[in-house]
Amino acid sequence: MSSEKPQVIRAKVGFFKLFFTSCLGTLLAVGVVVLGFISIGVQASQGNTPTIKPNTVLKLQFNKPLPELSNNVVQDPYDFKGMLKDNVGLRDACQLIEIAMNDDNIKGIYLDLSSIPIGWASSKVLRDQLVSFKGAGKFILSYGTYYDQKSYYFASVADQVYLHPEGGFSFYGFAGEMTYFKGLMDKLGVTAQIFYAGKFKSATEPFRRTDMSPANRKQVTEYMGGMYDLYLEDLAVARSIGKDELFRIANNGLIRAPKDAVTHKLVDATKYKDEVLDELREKLGTNEDDDIEVTTLKKYLAIHKDELKASTGSDKVAVIYAEGSIVDGQGEKGSIGGDKYASIIRKLRKDKDVKAIVMRVNSGGGSALASDIIWRELEKAKEQGIKIVTSMGDVAASGGYYIASNSEKIFAEDRTITGSIGVFGMIPNMRGLFQDHLGITMDTVKIGKYSMMSRGSAFYEFSAEEGQIIQASVDQVYTTFKTRVSEGRNMTMAAVDSVAQGRVWLGTTALEIGLVDELGGLEDAIKAVASSANLTEDDYSVVGYPKTKSFEEQLVAALGGEDGSDEMKTKLLQNLKSSLTGSEYSEYVEYIKAVEMVKSMKGVQMRMPCEVSIK
User: Fold this and answer.
1) What are the domain boundaries of the chain?
2) For this UniProt entry, which segments traverse the membrane (predicted)?
């Protein structure tokens, strides 16, 4: 066993990783060339493209995060297998299921479900597509060793729902929890200097409280309760069980073993996997020793990718997928860079073929400045006569609502979390940590009464007068936010103020209070904006933005010194800084994200009041 300290060992590992990274470009370049020749050889020998064999089952798992736009996710530079695969987005996934519905070679769907890291609004969209598939007369069979409430939501669509005899079934009602850091900060001598507008704007609560405020508890309870009602309604229809009965089963904790799920008719039977596979063979009409032909969503995408990109006209409806945090500058995949998205909109409004834009928003907000930069470009597009409609995904709140506020029409899913019209600013003061715990002190020289405000020091405690200046700035941004909503939604300032205050609303309630116009999905928004632009149905093309690149395209850019090179190198180096293992990262990732969010904040923020995971 090594006698070296873990820090020393990790430092050495980091050195060798860095050394490996410096050689990575050359190694991958050679590898890509070799793989390219191998791929060409294989394709030449086969003489055709992949196809789906007759009597095939489409296997769906949904066990990875699902972006709005395919491949619009941050990629781990060391996940080489993942790099070479497409990350299927929500719209493509729905279209692929629709294609499978009309594919004679696809006989049915096999749901192999466990934990599903997808938002509730996206889950409803996917589940509705499964309902349509089933309505076309094809079978859906679901099997799981463990169903939580999200995976069971998908499973409930199936003709047969099976559970492992010794498996698990969690059905107790919705709950969520927040993590609070103030106690830790107090121990470390770190204080958060916080300024906010909106009594429900609780994004800063984890840094100024040790528990949930009454206002935050009220809004979370209301939207979580509304979401639970919708959940039970969908299950009631699928399983032919009354909504009140489902509530009773959950509220009394009546399902404590797999057999209980069968007793209460949430599951059709308990079976081992070999029994389920035998039943699949019966449905397919194959022999018990025959292999079952299976395809996955990713394989199906590889076959139908060109079909998804098919255009039907020269006029364009541009769908801009704004997903992730709203950040200053260019941002990266999976985030909304203010300058990047403004540039996209600017190019689209200069394209004479672009007649309409759909903003597909799935964001809890972020930088107020970046949000306004995007808002401005959308205003310019409207002035040119381009029709603009917003479609909201899992969440379109705070800055996410800001960039939607000037749309001609706003569509939300019934489970969309939206609103959060409020702002905040937060500057940490770590003087206590450095002085009392580390023995590090700092002194200042000021030329000007308020000169330290321009420095943004983490050692400086703002005076009452300085705090008033910052609060006034936050209040001004809040007023601008409410003005944008007032003008964009044709509401009085008083009406906006009554539904603002940083409060979060469920899509169904947002419709009632005038923050959205219709409940519907992305396809509904596309049809609406096309109609508004007087485009003939089936005579226009739908084009998605931003344009995402495959790993091979990114690699070519990096090796060729194109714009993507610095981005890739930066990502590689950022990964080297982490000494966490994969399992450690999975366990602590949410806490890391919270710290990284605070570190990245610049200026006034428009963010969701809280991050609550509902399970």
Assistant:
1) 1-48, 56-171+255-305, 311-426+453-607
2) 15-38
